[in-house]
Amino acid sequence: MNKTLTAVRAADSTEIRLGLATGMAPEYPGSDRYRASVNKNRTPALPTLSIQRGAWFLDSARGIGGEYLNENSGSYASAALNSDPGRREKIKNKNRSLRGMGDVKAGAALQLRAAQHLTPQIALTAAANFRLSGQKHHGNDYRLGVSGKVWQSETDSITLAADLRLADRDYQQTYFGVTPAQSARSGYRTCQPKAGVYGYGVSAGWMHQFNENWSAGIGVEALQLTGKAKNSPLVREKTQISGGA
After folding, report:
1. How far is CA 2 from CA 76, 130, 224, in A?
2. What average pLDDT does this structure show over 97-115?
3. What average pLDDT does the structure give for the chain?
4. Which among 105, 71, 200 is positioned nearest to 144, based on CA atoms?
5. pLDDT tier at 90 (50, 70, 90 boundaries)?
6. How far, in Å, CA of 225 to CA of 229, rounded?
7. 197 bridge partner residues
8. How many Å apart are CA 26 and CA 36, to the nearest integer?
9. Residue 2 burial by CB count (10 A; 0-12/13-18/19+): exposed, middle or buried?
10. What pLDDT is attached to residue 43?
11. Which residues contact 74 (CB under 8 A, 6 or more apart)?
12. What mean pLDDT do residues 127-134 have?
């Protein structure tokens, strides 16, 4: 959050950041197979770019948007247009996990974020992702959580976070459901999950500041699927682990 405070406060300056990112994540929500999370071609690392001027930003991870901060109350909010990669059927997948399910089309999404600091170290957080284009009846998902900076020195900081994952009926059907037509093609039983909680997440991150211009960080996240999502025939692994640097 400190970097966000600095960026919002410096209304007349432009900050440009370049970097490299790499990571691993499940192939799709519920998969027991992993892939490089930076892109579909399993490239070990990809360049990252962030340009910020005052409250406005163009970011390879966050998209294009703006943010607002009230330092006195500790309130933060942001809105951005970003891309959603969807999900590929992977016809050639040997374990046939998505064969017959069809693609979830990529598209644009409106991403809203908010935080309210209870103390300088602890904040309540909320997020919402609204699909604007691509897959018809894709649906939207939401997060409610808490995050905290549990340790900080002049060069290092460690943060922990936990959240509740929720989604509307369309989102649940898109990623965890199986329609009668998909069932006929894939052999999976039909599944029509309703709106509600689909998982609980926890994460941890470490950041090291080498000097004014250079830093490095790592993070890991665990997602425990629950409810109808956990019982979906597409789910091979109920506990999802991902990480990046």
Report:
1. 11, 27, 29
2. 94
3. 90
4. 200
5. confident
6. 6
7. 166
8. 9
9. exposed
10. 57
11. 116, 117, 118, 120, 123
12. 97
Tokens of 50: 């962030």
Report residue 5's pLDDT band, with 50, 70 and 90 as the boundaries. very low
Q: How confident is the model at residue 93 (pLDDT cuts 50, 70, 90)?
A: low
CA distance 40 to 139: 23
What is the percentage of the chain residues whose pLDDT exceeds 70? Answer: 89
Phi then psi for 4, rounded to 5 degrees? -65, -40
Q: Report pTM.
A: 0.88
Chain position carrying tokens 């004014």: 212
* DSSP for 61-111, written as a single string: TTEEEEEEEETTTTEEEEEEEEEE--B---TT-TT-SSTTS--B--EEEEE
Q: Tell me the backbone φ, ψ of residue 148, rounded to 5 degrees.
A: -155, 145
Cβ within 8 Å of residue 19, ≥6 positions away: 47, 48
> Tokens 């607002």 — which residue?
68
What is the DSSP code (8-state) at residue 188? P
**pLDDT value, residue 243:** 95
For residues 220, 39, 65, 165, the Cα torsion angle rounded to the nearest 10 degrees is -40
Where residue 13 falls among pLDDT bands split at 50, 70, 90? Answer: confident
User: Using CA atoms, how far apart are residues 22 and 219, in angstroms rounded to an integer?
Assistant: 11
Asked whether the beta carbons of 23 and 242 are under 8 A apart, the reply is: yes
94: which 2 tokens? Answer: 């040997």
Best CA proximity match to 25, nearest among 201, 167, 171: 201
Coil/strand/helix, residue 6: helix
Q: How many residues does the chain have?
A: 245
Q: What is the mean pLDDT of residues 125-143?
A: 96
Structural tokens at position 48 = 């990252």
